[in-house]
Amino acid sequence: MGRLHAARTRPKSLGNVTPSPLTEMNLNIQGKAAHTFDAIVVGSGISGGWAAKELTEKGLKTLVLERGHDVKHIVDYKTTNSPPWELQWLNTPSREMLAQQSKQARTGYTVRPEAGYLFVDDEDHPYEEKKRFDWMRGYHTGGRSLMWGKQSYRMSPMDFEANGKDGIATPWPITYDEIAPWYDYVERFAGISGSKDGLEQLPDGVFQPPMDLTPPELDLKAAIEGKWKGRTLIPGRVAHLTAPTEEQLALGRASCQYRNLCRRGCPFGAYFSSQAATLKAAANTGKMTLRPHSIVHSVIFDDKTEKAIGVRLIDEVTFETIEYYAQVIFLNASTVASTAILMNSKSKRFPNGMDESGSLGGNLMDHHLGVGAGATLDTHQDKIHFGRRPNGFYVPRFRNFSEKPNGNYIRGFGYQGGGMRQGWNRWIDGFGTDFKKELTSFGPWSISMGGFGECLPYDNNRISLSKDKTDKWGLPLVVADAEFQENEIKMRGDMMNDAAEMLEAMGAKNIQTYNNPPSIGLGIHEMGTARMGNTAKVSVLNKHNQVWGAENVFCTDGAAMTSAGCQNPSLTYMALTARAADFAVSEIKKGNL
Amino acid sequence: MIAEAIIPKTDTPGAIDAGVPGWIEVIVQDCFEPADQKVIVEGLADLMRRCQEAHRKDISQLTGPEQVSFLTKMHHDTLGEKREAQKAGNPQRKTFLEQFKDLTKLCYVGSEVGATEAFDFMLVPGKWVASMPLEPGQKVWAM
User: Fold this and answer.
1) Cβ-proximal residues to A468 (8 Å cutoff; 6+ apart), any chain
2) Residue A290 and residue A44 in contact, taking contact as beta carbons nearer than 8 Å
3) Which of A314, A479, A490, B27 has its CA 20 to 30 A from that of A388?
4) Which of A389, A440, A445 to mutate to test the interface with B (most CBs of B within 10 A)?
5) Best mutation site among B128, B132, B141 for testing chain A: the one with the most A CBs within 10 Å?
6) Which pLDDT tens digit goes with each residue over A454-496?
7) Full strand arrangement of the beta sheet holding A462-470
8) What residues of chain A lie within 8 A of the CB of B7, using their CB?
9) Interchain contact, A85 vs B110, CB within 8 Å
10) Which of A89, A217, A259 sits opposite B123 (nearest CB)?
11) CB distance A84–B132 less than 8 Å?
C-alpha cells in the first residue's frame, strides 16, 4: 500500500475492489497534487454540465467525473445521419437488445438500434424494485442531456409556495423571485424556443422564436380559449435554437433543422446538450478535466476539519479505487444516483450517510402520465405540414388554479400534445394497389394530448441501498419502494376527461380516451430524495443546495426538488445549479468553504 | 410473394423490388418473440392451405385482383376467428395477416427503394412549415 492510500482506511462496503500495486505506485509518484482540484463535479448530464461551465468560467480548476463511457460531440453520434435502411433491423429492437435492456425497454421507445446504446445495460446495472420503478438512464458523457425531451418550463410562484400553503412535506426554502434571474440566465445560454404568453402559472422567460402551431392546433387553441376562461394552448417551450445568439454560434451551435432525430445526438448542436453547450464552454476555459469511467462511491468527509475533502471513485474499467480532492464538490449524478452517493458517504459525523433529518431517500417523485385523449379531424384536408418539428403544443395548468377541481385532489397537471397530418403509419384497410395508393397518400389530421400530473412528496416513497446486494463494482444496489398515491390517482380522472372535453369543443371526431396505470419513473422526471429545506431537521440541503453539516458539498440535480410542480423539471435543475455555483464561488472567495 | 400482393409494383416499385421479403425474414428471425414467430410460420402454412382450398392454386398463380379478394377474405375470416377465441376467454396475439401487413409496410417504408421512390424522403428538412397547401401528386413523408 502506498502512503496515500495507507493513510485512509478502505471502507468495508467497497467489497472486493482491489487496487493494483502499479497504480498505487504511480499515484505516489504523481503525488496528491495531481489528484487535487479546486472543484469536483460528479456527473456530466444536464446539471453537471452547468456546474462544470459555471465553476470553470469563474476560474476554478474543475474535475468532472462521468461514471460511463465518453461520447464526443458529433463524432460519436454514430447513427445521426443514418437513413432507416442503414439502421439494424430497420430500427426495430432485437430480442437480444430487449433482453439486455429489459428495464430500459419499458418506455417502448428507448431501446432501438438508432440510440439504444445511450441507455444502460440492465444486466450490468441492476437495481431492486419493491414496487415497480422504471429507472431510465444513460451512463455516458452528457447523460440524459443527449436523450431528453427538451421541454423547458419554469416553475411558477404558485409551485414554490405550494408545500408551505398546503402544509405538505416541507416548504421550499426559496421563492420564485430568488430563482427567476437564474432562469433568465440559463435560458439565455441554453436557448429556449417559445412564446411569451403572460401566464402566472407558467412564467415567461428569455425566448427564441416559437415553433408555429399547425392548423388543428390553432383550432384547438381557439376552441379552448373560447369555452374556458383561464385555459390556453401555447407552442411547446423547447431547448432548441431557432435564432441562435452570437454566443451559441461561437460554440458551434446552429438552428434546428427539423429532422426530429434528436435522441441520436444532434450534429448541428441545435438542441441543448452538455456536449453542444455547457461542457464545450467549460472545455474552452482550459480549466476542465473530464474523467470518464469514474463511478463515484462516496464523498470523503474529514471529521477533524468537518469538511468534505474529496470523493472516492471506482474506475469502471480497471476496478481500481481512486481518490480525488477538492475544496468544493458538486453532486450532479442524477436524482437517485446523487442520493445513493450521499447514503454511501459515511463518517463519524454522518454515520448513516450525509443526512441527519431522515429525509434522505424519501419523497421520490415523478410526473404521472399515460393519460389523455386523441382524435381525428375532417377539416384542413387541403393542408399539410413540412419538416419534423421536435415539439408540439402545451396546455398549462388550469385545475386548482383558474378552475376548481372536479375531484378531491390538490395541485394539477399540464398537457403536451400535437396535431399532425397522418401518414403511412396509420392502419389502412385492404391489400394490393388500392392499399398502396392509400399508404402513399395523406390521411386525415389527428390530434392528441397527454397529461403530466404533479406528484406529491411522500415520505414513504423511498429509495434505499441494499444491505446485501452489490453490483459488479461493489456498490450496494439501489432499492426503490415508491408508488403514485391517492392524490395522483384521483387527479387522473380529470386529466382524461378534460382532454376529451377540449377535443370535443373543437369538433374533433373519433375521440379516444386512455388512462393507463402509471408507475414511478416512466415520466423520466425522477425528483426528490435529498430535498432542499429551511432546516437541517427536515431536509438534506439548504437554500443554496449545500448539504447541511457539509457545506462544501452541493447537490443541484433533481434530488434537490422539494416539490415537483407539473412542469418538465430540467430547466429548474439548470437554474438551481447556476445559482448554487455562483454562491459557492462567492463563499470560497469569502473564505467560508 | 405475399408481401408483393400487399404492396404490388405499380408506377412505383413493389415490395419485392424494395427487398421487403429479405428484411421480413431478418426481423422475424432476430426481433420477434417465439410466439409471434410461430404466428408467422403457421400463418404462412395456413395461407397456402386456405388458398389451395379456395382456388386449388398457389397464391403466386392468382391474378392481382384474385390475390386481393383472397387476402381480404382471409383477413376477415381470421379476424373473426380471433374474436371468437377472445370471447371464449383465450387471449390472442395479432393475426398472421395483421402482423404480416404491418411488417410489409414497415420494411417497404424503411427500405431505400420504397422510401425514396414511393414516398417523399428527407433526412434534413431544414425548416418547419406548420401549414402549406397539399399539392396534387405530393407523396407522404417517408419519415
Assistant:
1) none
2) yes
3) B27
4) A440
5) B128
6) 999 999 999 999 999 999 999 999 999 999 999 999 999 999 9
7) A128-129, A476-481, A462-470
8) 435-436, 439
9) yes
10) A259
11) no
| Shortest CA gap B89–chain A (Å) | 22
Q: Does A9 touch chain B (CB under 8 A)?
A: no
**B125 closest CB neighbour out of A388, A435, A442:** A388
A256 contact residues in B (CB cutoff 8 A)? 128
Is any Cβ of chain B less than 8 angstroms from the Cβ of A195? no
Residues in chain A, how many?
A: 593
In degrees and rounded to multiples of 5, residue A587 shows phi and psi of: -70, -40
Exposure on the CB side of residue A234, measured as CA atoms within 13 A:
25
Nine-digit cell string for A348: 463519524
Are A135 and A526 contacting, i.e. CB atoms less than 8 angstroms apart? Answer: yes
- The answer to whether the Cβ–Cβ distance between A85 and B26 falls below 8 Å is no
Nearest residue of chain A to residue B135 (CA atoms)? A382
- Residue A82, all three cell numbers: 443514418
Indicate yes or no: CB of B123 within 8 angstroms of CB of A81: yes
Residue A21 has pLDDT above 70, yes or no: no
Per the CB < 8 A criterion, the answer to whether A444 and A376 are in contact is yes
Please state the three-class secondary structure of A289-327 as a single string.
EEECCEEEEEEEEECCCCEEEEEEEEECCCCCEEEEEEE
Owning domain of residue B134: 2-142
For the record, the C-alpha cell of B31 comes out as: 426481433
Q: State how many domains chain B has.
A: 1
CA–CA dist A502, A417 (Å, integer): 12
Read off the pLDDT of each residue in A259-287 and give the average, rounded to a whole number.
Answer: 98
Neighbouring CB atoms inside 10 A of B55's CB total 14
CB–CB contacts below 8 A, A to B? 143
Burial class for A171, CB neighbours closer than 10 Å (0-12, 13-18, 19+): buried
Examine the pLDDT at B82 and tell me if it is beyond 90: yes
What is the predicted ipTM?
A: 0.97
DSSP H stretches of helix in chain B: 2-6, 20-31, 34-55, 64-87, 96-110, 112-113
